[in-house]
Amino acid sequence: MSGPVPFLRKGTLVRNRSLLVVSLAVVGALSVSACGSRGGSKTGTDNAGGTTVTIGVDAPLTGDLSALGLGIKNSADLAAKQANEKNEVPGVTFKIEALDDTGKPAPGQQNATQLVADKTVLGVVGPLNSSVAQSMQQIFNDANLVEVSPANTGVALSQGEKWATGVKARPFKSYFRTATTDAVQGPFAAQYLIGAAKKKVFLIDDQKTYGAGLAATFKGEFTKLGGTIVGEEHVNPDDRDFSAIVTKVKAAGADAVYYGGEYPAAGPLSQQLKDAGVSIPLMGGDGIQSDEFIKLNNKAEGDLATSVGLPVEQLPSAAKFIADYKAAGYKDAYETYGGYSYDSAWAIIEGVKAVVAANNGKVPSDARAKVIAAVQAVSFNGVTGTVSFDEYGDTTNKQLTVYAVKAGKWAVEKSGTFAG
Predict the structure, then answer these.
(1) Taking Cα atoms as reference points, which of 109, 126, 132, 147 lies closest to residue 72?
(2) Which of 122, 256, 287, 292 falls between 20 and 30 A from 218, CA-CA?
């Protein structure tokens, strides 16, 4: 989900994912090795008398969503490298193990099994997509392995399938996220369009966990505020010919199109609408708030997207991250989730730090379970602001940003906190 504001995007992308601008990413694989003669856990390899902890990273490193995935991986990698440079956890060296899920649940599930089998892994950053997260959560939870996603926005992942009815129940104690959820992102977009006098919307989603969930929360708030849904359609994420839907949108008299999904399909959809003379904005979530959306759509001017958090480039807390990322020489942009990925990785590092400090400077044999508890209690100033988690494992940062394409770039339109 992933521009000028490289780390704002999400879901199943991405929200499978579902994000917005104030975001940045951390990628890594946490591998722990401790020498038995030091009284630690025999979960890793001896590293000059110390312990190596692996932070796993799961993201789409190839395929249509790889721009976002590589930003996640690199950001997590930067966090691990800086933790080592600072000797953040005395006696512990962090390393990253990044696996490619291609944005699909089945490879994600296989990656989860592989990471669990590596006893040196004490935490995982990712995934990007909410649908991929669904395939991994049980595996990580059964192994007491903490998972911190920088991009998932599907609400049920943390609050249970009945959350929309007011019945919230956390399904997995091992699951956390630094991106806010679609429960606020969709409604925030609805409030923006109503305020902009866009009261007739054609609703489209890609049927994935992120896209469908985002569209549903948008629809609920939009109609509550007096807006009218003049048409609804579902597409396949791999579709690139939208001529039939363009005809329906044109006939519906919509003021705007709201799309629940990611940029690979959203870009061509918007392009084809404009080519057909449908000169109305297409709006989506963090899954489209990426430079890739603009590259796929040379008529994107005026299109809109929400993303989690405040614009990263405008955050004093993010200035060092941006400079350090550039200095590190990564060839890929940190993208929408870069800042959030860095913070996700650092949350794991902080968790390991607390567990090691409480065990006389050694990694305990039951480190994974203790790291989960430690991550639940973390609170620190990160790239995206204060990083901490509520009782569901969700970020306590509920701020969002609306972006608009202006002069070929994503520009900030409005930032704020959703008022339910």
Answers:
(1) 126
(2) 292
pLDDT value of residue 23: 35
Q: How many domains does the chain have?
A: 1
Instruction: Report the alpha-carbon distance of residue 148 to residue 30 in Å, rounded.
Output: 12
- Give the single-character DSSP code of 249: H
Is there a contact between 214 and 207 (Cβ–Cβ < 8 Å)? no
d(CA 302, CA 279): 9
For residue 25, is it within any domain?
Answer: no
CA 302 – CA 283 distance, rounded (Å): 9
Please give the single-letter amino acid code of residue 156. Answer: A
CB 97 within 8 A of CB 348: no
pLDDT (0 to 100) of residue 49: 45
| Cis status, amide bond into 127, omega within 30 of 0 | yes
CB 132 within 8 A of CB 112: no
β-strand partners of 93? 52
Query: CA separation (Å) from 82 to 78, 91, 122, 161?
Result: 6, 15, 18, 38
Q: So what's the pLDDT on residue 81?
A: 98
Whether residue 107 contacts residue 100, with contact meaning beta carbons closer than 8 Å, is answered with: yes
Maximum distance among all alpha carbons in the chain? Answer: 75
The CA angle 320-321-327, to the nearest 5 degrees, is 85
- pLDDT, residue 20, reads 32
Of residues 261, 55, 85, the one with CA closest to residue 148: 55
Which residues form the domain of 146?
Answer: 36-155+168-417
Residue recorded with tokens 């350090």: 324
322 three-class SS: helix
Within-domain flag for 274: yes
Give me the pLDDT at residue 290, please.
92
Tell whether 163 is covered by a domain: no
| Average pLDDT along the chain, 420 residues, taken 10 residues at a time | 37 37 33 31 44 98 96 98 98 98 97 98 97 97 98 95 94 97 94 97 96 96 98 96 97 98 97 97 96 94 94 88 97 94 98 98 97 98 95 94 96 86
CATH of the domain at 295: 3.40.50.2300
Question: Is 191 among the domain residues?
Answer: yes
- Amino acid, res. 238: D
Predicted confidence at residue 37, as pLDDT, reads 27
State the pTM of this model.
0.81
Whole-number pLDDT of residue 166: 92
Compute the distance between CA of residue 152 and CA of residue 138 in angstroms, rounded to an integer: 16
The Cβ of residue 194 has, within 10 Å, a number of other Cβ atoms equal to 17
Q: Which residue has the tokens 């994600």?
A: 108
